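G., the chain you wanted modeled:
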Amino acid sequence: MSDTIKIRTNHAWRPFVYRGDVPAKVLQSQFDHLSEDDSLDGFFCYRGYWYHLSDFMRNTAENSPLKDWHGVAGDSYFSGVLIRVSGDGERYQVATYLS
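Predicted structure as tokens:
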């Protein structure tokens, strides 16, 4: 990744959504691979698209501009979504990155 990565976020902490609060149509079309027992929570909607924590790869890069974010989900080679999870695992911050 380039050193000129732009990260856009409002730094707001939001609670994760439980599976029962995700529209059934979204569960069927996007998350049919997740078992009900393994995915009770960890859902959120960002910019009109639903995500689950399992959509993110853990970020372990220590010298990267993304080092303060816990997970990365790439949209393309140059862009994607970042997530930071609170210590108690109940809330998240989300951002978009572009290089």
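Strands lie at 6-8, 14-15, 43-46, 49-52, 57-58, 71-74, 79-85, 91-98.

Shout if anything looks off.
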